[in-house]
């Protein structure tokens, strides 16, 4: 039996998204049907709509979600109907060269549902990051469901499904931020603010938030930033160096995804420091750096996909910290909205009004 549900679809490059009826098949072998309770609006959804990821329109947007498993297909044993789950875009395969070397967070062969969700005329949809959760129900691979404590609010829990995990993980997993480190975070939207939180959890002594928006900086301070720099009015590199004894930060996290902010990150880190790129660039962007500086400054230049997270390890742990009051996820939820308000949320995101708008169903 197939399910007819309402969902947010991007039909063409740059065109406003529309609320449509889509067809979701019953789960086949290895798949799970999930009733969505909440799904955050991430900048990557907007990238999809603008054609910045690929041209496989129509997209079924939404990928930062939590919900309840409604049914599972043949052979599924890890999750069961009734489980409260966060959806992830890293269902690891266990067999690729990364998994076999014991580094599943780099899995090169993650999987999604095999069956396609469609429009009512049969047109196949491309679900954003293999999830597609601005929908009343979605079909995913069972491995994309990570069971967590039901006591957590769906709006907060869902955020771990992408942006907040990407930010926390960029600091903790990729940047390896440790006790006493100095960290600078360039761009403090949902992802960057989460990198601030991750740095704080990891025991960083100095956390410098950089943004061009005072409101974002204020929130970053609330979440643990010790210093704030508005790089609209001042030079980010100079400001970060000044705040770190003239040297630069041990770890600089770029959470915008632009060449100029990457360059700032590169020069704002101390010698032998680490740059983590978590912002997603678009295909036409180029970076030019003196190779001698790349060599001479030493250290590590890394990129962070999904915070190098392992959902089965990281989601339940972070939800536990949240329930203990040690990880503030609620501050990330600026507003809750209805399914037909995603386009409006994109506008607000574009204006920089929100950390996260979260669709609650
Ligand atoms: N690597 C991953 O796994 C991953 C996961 C999710 C999102 N992302 C990416 O991370 C980036 C941020 O996502 P988000 O949801 O936080 O977006 P967002 O729009 O909420 O935040 C972007 C922030 O950058 C600030 N900004 C813009 N230009 C700036 C500049 N020149 N200098 C300093 N700050 C500037 C904005 O004011 C805003 O606060 C996006 O590129 C998104 O696609 C990456
Ligand atoms: Zn693998
Ligand atoms: Zn995302």
Automatic annotation (TrEMBL):
<dbReference type="InterPro" id="IPR013154">
    <property type="entry name" value="ADH-like_N"/>
</dbReference>
<dbReference type="GO" id="GO:0005829">
    <property type="term" value="C:cytosol"/>
</dbReference>
<dbReference type="InterPro" id="IPR013149">
    <property type="entry name" value="ADH-like_C"/>
</dbReference>
<dbReference type="Pfam" id="PF08240">
    <property type="entry name" value="ADH_N"/>
</dbReference>
<protein>
    <submittedName>
        <fullName>S-(Hydroxymethyl)mycothiol dehydrogenase</fullName>
        <ecNumber>1.1.1.306</ecNumber>
    </submittedName>
</protein>
<dbReference type="GO" id="GO:0050607">
    <property type="term" value="F:mycothiol-dependent formaldehyde dehydrogenase activity"/>
</dbReference>
<dbReference type="Pfam" id="PF00107">
    <property type="entry name" value="ADH_zinc_N"/>
</dbReference>
<dbReference type="InterPro" id="IPR020843">
    <property type="entry name" value="ER"/>
</dbReference>
<dbReference type="GO" id="GO:0046294">
    <property type="term" value="P:formaldehyde catabolic process"/>
</dbReference>
<dbReference type="InterPro" id="IPR017816">
    <property type="entry name" value="MycoS_dep_FDH"/>
</dbReference>
<dbReference type="InterPro" id="IPR036291">
    <property type="entry name" value="NAD(P)-bd_dom_sf"/>
</dbReference>
<dbReference type="InterPro" id="IPR002328">
    <property type="entry name" value="ADH_Zn_CS"/>
</dbReference>
<keyword id="KW-0560">Oxidoreductase</keyword>
<dbReference type="GO" id="GO:0008270">
    <property type="term" value="F:zinc ion binding"/>
</dbReference>
<keyword id="KW-0520">NAD</keyword>
<comment type="similarity">
    <text>Belongs to the zinc-containing alcohol dehydrogenase family.</text>
</comment>
<keyword id="KW-0479">Metal-binding</keyword>
<keyword id="KW-0862">Zinc</keyword>
<dbReference type="InterPro" id="IPR011032">
    <property type="entry name" value="GroES-like_sf"/>
</dbReference>
<feature type="domain" description="Enoyl reductase (ER)">
    <location>
        <begin position="14"/>
        <end position="361"/>
    </location>
</feature>
<dbReference type="GO" id="GO:0051903">
    <property type="term" value="F:S-(hydroxymethyl)glutathione dehydrogenase [NAD(P)+] activity"/>
</dbReference>
């Amino acid at each position: 039996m197939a399910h007819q549900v309402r969902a947010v679809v991007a039909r063409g490059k740059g065109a406003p998204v529309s609320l449509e009826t889509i067809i979701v098949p019953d789960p086949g072998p290895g798949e799970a049907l999930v009733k969505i309770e909440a799904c955050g609006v991430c900048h990557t959804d907007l990238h999809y709509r603008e054609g910045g990821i690929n041209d496989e329109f129509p997209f079924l947007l939404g990928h930062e979600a939590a919900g309840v498993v409604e049914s599972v297909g043949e052979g599924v044993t890890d999750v069961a109907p009734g489980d409260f789950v966060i959806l992830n875009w890293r269902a690891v395969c266990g067999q690729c060269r990364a998994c076999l070397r014991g580094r599943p967070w780099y899995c090169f062969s993650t999987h999604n549902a095999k069956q396609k969700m469609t429009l009512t005329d049969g047109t196949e949809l491309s679900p954003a990051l293999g999830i597609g959760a601005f929908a009343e129900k979605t079909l995913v691979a069972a491995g994309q469901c990570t069971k967590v404590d039901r006591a957590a609010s769906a709006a907060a829990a869902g955020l771990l499904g992408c942006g907040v995990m990407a930010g926390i993980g960029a600091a903790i997993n990729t940047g390896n931020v440790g006790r006493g480190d100095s960290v600078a975070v360039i761009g403090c939207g949902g992802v960057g603010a989460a990198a601030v939180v991750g740095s704080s959890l990891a025991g960083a002594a100095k956390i410098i938030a950089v943004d061009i928006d005072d409101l974002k900086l204020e929130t970053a301070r609330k979440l643990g930033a010790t210093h704030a720099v508005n790089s609209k009015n001042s030079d980010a590199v100079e400001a970060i160096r000044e705040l770190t004894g003239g040297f630069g930060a041990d770890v600089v996290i770029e959470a915008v995804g632009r060449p100029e902010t990457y360059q700032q990150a590169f020069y704002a880190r101390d010698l032998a420091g680490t740059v983590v790129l978590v912002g997603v660039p678009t295909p036409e962007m180029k970076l030019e750096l003196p190779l001698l500086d790349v060599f001479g400054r030493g250290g590590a230049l890394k990129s962070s996909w999904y915070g190098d997270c392992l959902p089965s390890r990281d989601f339940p742990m972070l939800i536990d910290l949240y329930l203990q009051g040690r990880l503030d996820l609620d501050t990330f939820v600026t507003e809750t909205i209805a399914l037909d308000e995603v386009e409006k949320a994109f506008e607000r995101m574009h204006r920089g009004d929100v950390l996260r708008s979260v669709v609650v169903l």
